[in-house]
Design a protein that fits this description.
By secondary structure, the protein is an alpha/beta fold. The protein has nine helices and 20 strands.
Length: about 375
């Protein structure tokens, strides 16, 4: 009798495990509607032979990341509208915002993940749907927030491939140089033209794609991650800033708050940088007009002219970026818009040229920023 009971329990357990395994593999897609409108908020200068910097501030949501085709369709629609306005040519440098690639961790998950309202609930669905991958990633996770590390590490190979497919494809389709915002990956590097991941710490990095879809240079790591990212993202100081050649001129990329620090501009100037792209992600609803949070965890921030809370985020970003770059720099800062569960993304992009600060018209929707060179 005992053997019969044991065998029955074993069969039930096997059935439960098989059912759970089958459930984790099902990825049905829900209904999808998206606003593809975008406003031209800034258009400075006159068209010429030198090209232009074109910033795209998309308005994105978790459902945009359910599959790669949705995100590609939305970004393509923005670029098509820019092309219709005469803002896209072979010398155009398109700049996308920080972390536009990081949210690719949500690609290909269950409908429930996109329907919940809290990130912690989305994380639970991610973990339940990928138990083996999550468990292995937790073993390799580092930093003060090992759970956040594991969420990114467990899907790193897929994210890297998606990032290159999506943004390299957009660059090739529109024939532009494309600064693909940023993505958080473990020890990212380019090997024989392909973005690869490693087993080291997580870095917030940006990649630039040429007009034929190929990668220009190596991933540019963020040098000074801000306070809310330092719990699981490593600073990229061991890899120096570098410049890539584009049809519009020599281009450097400063990720996020790296644009605040004069030393970064001096490093790029020493490499004859002519243009600087600054992809940014600013979290928090209405944070653009809230007190500036600063970067108190970075000792280099002690040399800044502002202290935490002395100005609004708007004023701090504009003042620090302009002061750090000086009068010789042509740069553009581009912010991500939208809502990721309870986390809102805020900020209004701007440009600097020869000591002149250019902001454009404010908007709650997606924005285009254009600067003729």
């Amino acid at each position: 009798m005992r053997k019969v009971v044991s065998a029955t329990l074993a069969l039930v357990l096997i059935a439960i495990l098989c059912g759970y395994g089958f459930w984790t593999q099902k990825r049905p897609e829900g209904h999808y509607l998206s606003d593809l409108r975008i406003e031209l908020a800034l258009n400075d200068g006159a068209p010429g032979e030198r090209g232009n910097l074109l910033g795209i501030e998309p308005r994105l949501f978790p459902s945009d990341y359910q599959n790669l085709q949705r995100l590609q369709r939305k970004l393509s629609a923005y670029l098509e509208q820019a092309r219709a306005l005469g803002l896209v040519n072979a010398r155009t440098v398109v700049i996308l915002p920080e972390h536009i690639g990081t949210w690719l961790w949500a690609r290909g998950e269950k409908n429930e993940l996109y329907q919940v309202t809290q990130r912690r609930e989305a994380w639970q669905w991610l973990e339940l749907s990928n138990p083996l991958r999550y468990g292995l990633a937790m073993l390799a996770a580092t930093g003060d927030d090992r759970r956040a590390d594991a969420h990114l590490r467990m899907k790193a190979d897929q994210m890297a491939a998606d990032y290159q497919t999506l943004f390299g494809g957009l660059a090739k389709h529109f024939g532009v140089t494309l600064v693909a915002g940023s993505i958080v990956l473990p020890a990212p590097h380019v090997e024989r033209g392909v973005l690869r991941t490693g087993s080291g710490p997580l870095y917030n990095t940006s990649l630039v794609f040429a007009g034929d879809g190929t990668v220009l240079g190596q991933p540019q790591r963020q040098q000074y991650p801000d306070s809310e990212m330092r719990r699981y993202i490593q600073g990229g100081g061991q890899q120096p800033l570098h410049v890539v050649q584009t049809p519009a001129g020599r281009l450097g990329v400063l990720v996020g708050s790296d644009s605040w620090y004069p030393e970064n501009y001096r490093d790029l100037a020493a490499q004859s940088a002519q243009l600087i792209a600054n992809p940014v992600f600013l979290s928090g609803k209405d944070s653009w007009d809230s007190p500036w949070r600063g970067n108190r965890h970075q000792s280099v921030a002690d040399g800044l002219a502002l202290r935490q809370g002395q100005a609004s985020e708007r004023s701090a970003w504009q003042q620090l970026t302009l002061a750090a770059g000086g009068r010789q720099v042509t740069s553009m800062s581009v912010f991500l818009r939208g809502q990721f569960w309870e986390l809102a993304a805020d900020g209004q992009g701007f440009a600097n040229r020869a000591g002149q600060h250019l902001t454009g018209s404010p908007s709650q929707g997606a924005r285009l920023l254009n600067l003729w060179l």
